[in-house]
Structures are given as structure tokens and as C-alpha cells.
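Q: What changes when zinc ion is included in the input?
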Amino acid sequence: MSDDPLGYHSNPRLLAEVERLAAHAPGGRAVLVEAGRTVRGQPIPAVRVSSPGPDRDGRPRVLVSANVHGNEVISSELAMALLADLAASTPTDAAQALLGRVEVVIVPAVNLDSRAAAADALIDGRLFARAPRGNANGVDLNRNFPWVQGGHDPWHPMAGSSIPWMPWYRGPEPLSEPEALALAELAERDRPVVALNLHSVGRLFLYPWNAYAEPPPHLDAFVAIGEAFCASQPGPRYQIKQAQAWYGIMGDMDDWLYERCGTLAMTVELSGAMEAVRERPTALFSPASWMNPVSPGATVRNSHVPCLMALLEGLNQAEARAAAPTPVSLPSPPRAGRCPAPCRRPARRVQAAG
Ligand SMILES: [Zn+2]
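A: The predicted holo structure follows.
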């Protein structure tokens, strides 16, 4: 059992809390919508938060998504802390500043089907309990997005695999999975200017490209956003790097958002590797603990305000970019290899997302 006062949310507790926070946000500031449904038919909640005002509908949007990987429960705890702050009657200064300028769209738990097992194992301190990374079909959702143009089949399985039993299985075709499609349709509709995708582990702040070693056209903007994040971390501070320099991925969400929607999209890899095992050696026998600290509090406190500061800096960078546009050009001509399936992209706009 977690001894942190924050603790981990079970799925029912998380969903009830999302509903409560949205309903009690002052002045109708928060609106709860359904982004889509999981493989098992669970509604995926998304909360839109912004200060009331006549210009509300025209404000730019920023997207925070978490728990795309079912076993990375800590990421949804951070998303919940951000939502609680943004929906509070007295938000932090950083949250207040953000709410006046943008609509924040928070999807605190994308992969609810798989999250359930991992969260319960963490809450109960259960050993030998399964903690799946993929969705209920065994697909790694962060390998299920359409490939950037010219993408090539990677040589290592972590970049995405066509073998169904692999943890990094990319699925039968891009956006085959309802959870990935829900995020893609939300992004197509909202065209977020900035996105933070919360994962674990590694204590990293990652920016595109995942698919290419070449730096992205907006490298300076990404680094500035990363520095805004790290500068406000009480500690330990995370490392800022291009995702491909960690390990390459094809079909991840950040590259797709950046190329397709022009979003300054970044991933935060929370917490240290095997942090829980160092704290509690028996955690070695609990797969859920490999990707999550024993208690979420310290990790959440180390990234809560930094995420808000990153979003604010991201907005500044997006505004500067709008004043002097630089297209998201792809860095090199197509390489050997090809996309394993046609890169189907969402052509229609979703109505259900409210
Ligand atoms: Zn992840």
C-alpha cells in the first residue's frame, strides 16, 4: 500500500475524481468530454479547461496526455495533479497564467484498459501481477500513429515491431487502435499548438524527431521549452534531448503531431529507472513497479509546475512561430524500407469530443 498521501488512483477512483474536478471547477471553467472509447468500450475522458471569457472559444489549445502506456501509471498521477490545479478555485500562478491564454485539454488516462491492472498492483503492493504496456489488443499505442514521410522500418524492436507478442507491437496498421485514433482525432480537431505527452521512465524531456537523427526545424523552440521545464524542477532535473538520441521510434505520437498538426509536441519521461526497486527491493518482482516509483508524490511535485512552465513557454514559442512561420520540413529524402501499411490518417473530424 502506498504510504504517500497522494497515493495512486485506481481506475474507478481516477474516473470519479476527473468527474468531480470538472463538475466543481468554478465558473464553468472545465468541461468533461469523451475523447473516444478503449478496446473494451470504456469512455476515455478528456477535460477542457480555460478561464471564462468572451474570447474563450478562439483561444489556442494545448494538449496534455498521459498513460498511453498502461503500465506507466505515474504519468496519469501527474496529469491528475495538473487537472486539480487548473480546476481549483485558487490555481497556482502558473496555472492561472495558462488559463487566461489557452484552453488546456487534459486526457489523464488514455490506456484505461491496461492501466487498471498496473494501478491495482501498485496500490495493493502485489507481486508477480501483470502490468501491460500495450492496449487490450497488445498494441503499443505509441507505435500506432502514422509514420512520418520517408520513414523506414527500424532495425531494433523497441522502435516498433510487427510481431504481435512484442511489447512494442505497432498493430496491424496505423491508427488501428481506438485509443490512438481518439487522440489523433482530438488533435485533428483541436490543432494544439503545444503538447506534452507524459510517460515513464528516464527523467528525460524529449523533443522530435523520433524517426530522424537530424534536428527538427524548431530546435531552438524545443530547447527553450525544455529549459523552462527543467529550470523550475526542485530536483532532480531532467535531461533535455532529441528523442532519436535516446532511441528511435517509428509511429510515435510526437512526430505525428509535429508533422501533421504543426504541434510543438514533446514527451516527458518521468521518474528514474527502477526507482521503486532501489527503494524497496521486493519491487523487482512487481512489473508495475519497474516503471513507477513506490509513491507518486515526489515525482509529481518535481514535474507539476515545470509542466505548466513548459506549456507557457511553448505558447510563447508558438506565438513567435506564428509571427515568423517555419514549415515543419522533413529532414532528408526517403530512405530504404517502407511503411508496413498505408499511413491511414483521420480524414473526418470527430463529433463526440464535444
Ligand atoms: Zn511510455
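Observations recorded in class: The pocket of zinc ion is lined by residues 69, 72, 199 (CB under 6 Å).
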